[in-house]
Structures are given as C-alpha cells and as structure tokens.
Amino acid sequence: MTQQPRILVIGSFMMDLVVRTPRAPQTGETVIGTSFNRFPGGKGANQAVAASRLGAAVTMAGKLGEDVFGDQFLSVLQEEGVCTKHILRDKTASTGIGSIVLDDAGNNRIVVVPGANMKYNLEDLAALADVFPAHDLLMLQLEMDVLVVQAAAQMAHRQGTKVVLNPAPARELPGELLQVVDYLTPNETEAELLTGVPVTDVDSARKAAALLLERGPKHVVITLGQNGALLATHDLSLHVPGFAVDTVDTVAAGDAFNGALAVQIARDCPLEEAVHFANAVGALSVTRPGAIPSLPKREEVEEFIRQARTA
Ligand code: ADP
Q1: CB 213 within 8 A of CB 232
Q2: Tens-digit pLDDT profile for residues 248-300
Q3: Which end of the chain is more exposed for a tag (fewer CB within 10 A), N or C?
Q4: Left (φ > 0), alpha (ψ -120 to 50) or beta: where does 261 sit?
Q5: pLDDT tens by residue, 96-111
Q6: 160-171: b (≥16 Cβ within 10 Å) or e
Q7: Would you say the CB of residue 248 lies under 6 angstroms from ligand 1?
Q8: C-beta 13 within 6 A of ligand 1
Q9: Is 255 among the catalytic positions?
C-alpha cells in the first residue's frame, strides 16, 4: 500500500510527576527529595506517538485541563506530527496526572488522578462524527469513560472504520462493546480478568483467546511480554515469538506494540507479519528507559528486524 495509513486515537493523557527520595515520608512527615521530573504519557498519547513515529497520519482526540500540563501535551504531540485539532480542554478538571514517589530501594507509591480524561463525554464524541470516515482505523484504550469508549467503537463500526481496542487498564467490559471490536489486544493480566483463565503461557493464552472470540471480537492478540504474542481468529491460533533483547525498562511496551499493530493493520499488512512487526517495536521499546522517549521510528524497526533473531 502506498497511501499513508490514517489512524484516529481517542484516548488519555497522563503526566507522570516523578519525585525521587531516599525514603518515602511517613504520615505527617516531610522528607527532602533528590529530584523531580515530569514525563508525558497516558495510553492514548503513547499509542498516538508510537503510530506517528512508525509513519501513520495520526489524529488524536481526548480532553486536557486548561493548565500547563495540557499545554505541554499539545506541544509534544505537535512536535511528533500528531494532529491535535480535536483535542479539547476542560475548565473544571486538571490534565490527568500520575504522582509517583520513588525511593532509593526502588519502591514506588502512586496516586493517579484521571482528571480531564474522564470529562470526555458522549457530546464531545458526537462532534467527531465527520472525522471518522477520514481514518482507516480507530484505536481505543480504557483510561476514559467506558461508555464513551463503547459509543466510539459503535460509531466507527457503523461507518466501516476498523476498531482496535487495547483493554487496558484491566476491567470488565460490556458485551455491546466487544461485539464491535475488530482487534482486541489484552496483555496476560487483562486477558485473565476478562476470561477468568490465568494466562501464563501460550497454551493458556489460546484458551483465553478462544473465550474472548466467543464474545465478539473478530481478532484477538494477547501480548505475552518477552514471549511475543498469541494471534487468534475463528480460523487460526498462532504464537508469534518475541525478540530477545536486554531489558532496561518495560514501561509502555504494550503501547509501543499497540501503536505498531494498528499502523500495520491500517496498511493492510498480513496479520502474522503485523504481529511480528509489533513484537519488534515492543522489544525495542524495552531496551530504552521511559515511555515516549522509548518509542522507535520505522527505519530503526526495519533495521532491527533485519539484524535480530526471534527468541
Ligand atoms: P504490557 O506492557 O501491556 O504488559 P507486554 O508486557 O505483553 O504488555 O508487552 C507488549 C509487547 O512488547 C510484547 O508482546 C512483546 O512484543 C514486547 N515485549 C515486552 N516485554 C518484552 C521483553 N522483555 N523482551 C522482548 N519483547 C518484549
């Protein structure tokens, strides 16, 4: 395919506010920390950037607060070539944040405030009706109101736009949503929560995938960390092995994988090849620290695939 694939991401923004400290304070205590950094992320933003770096034309929709974090997200996404004109700002809620206290022993304490992400509503979605047909594929995750996620998937389904749902973070899902999903991409934990089958290896992933397929999605791709992924449809169940790499930081591996899978599907790449490519992108992302900084460009991925051996 020669045309650039067009992907619409309706999803979340989360600014990670990371405080490092020798030790975490007790209740009522103040300690002096050693550093403070903020890192833009959130599953929606990460997947949008992942897809853009891999060559897709990406439009992102969702909601930010009217605050400095919201401004920072817009500039990060614009620098990445992501279209931001459908991103809204909320006057009443802050941009989504994760407040992370990390001590020298490597323990963390996290408070997530979804903020404006949860203010993106059905009315906001209705305003996107004309935007769907200009895209080959819609990517969704679950850091927003699940009713909005469901309505978005239904809207895309009616208009013939393919739907990829990354059901993260793990939660139960309405049947009406699963019925309009073309590609469902849980990790092991999410697959277990959705099916009750503990997913620990390829065989258990096959069982979970079979149960998920009965609930409506046309394709199920269960990510298996370093073991790659299991691809299942009503006609096949195939383990696509991962790539052996030195792991530095697994943050955003799932987002890297999902962004990549979406781009390859939108390019009409055969599915097994698409999963192989997504495994390479996930593997490359774990060799580097951080979320957005760890996401590779297409040329790097192609070079990595040429050189690498699968695990
Ligand atoms: P999540 O980050 O959502 O928990 P996974 O851990 O399953 O998802 O990772 C997503 C994908 O990233 C995997 O399917 C695989 O392709 C790749 N990946 C993750 N961890 C590793 C690893 N340690 N080595 C190689 N590839 C990895």
Answers
A1: yes
A2: 999 999 999 999 999 999 999 999 999 999 999 999 999 999 999 999 999 99
A3: N
A4: alpha
A5: 999 999 999 989 999 9
A6: ebbbbbbbbebe
A7: no
A8: no
A9: yes
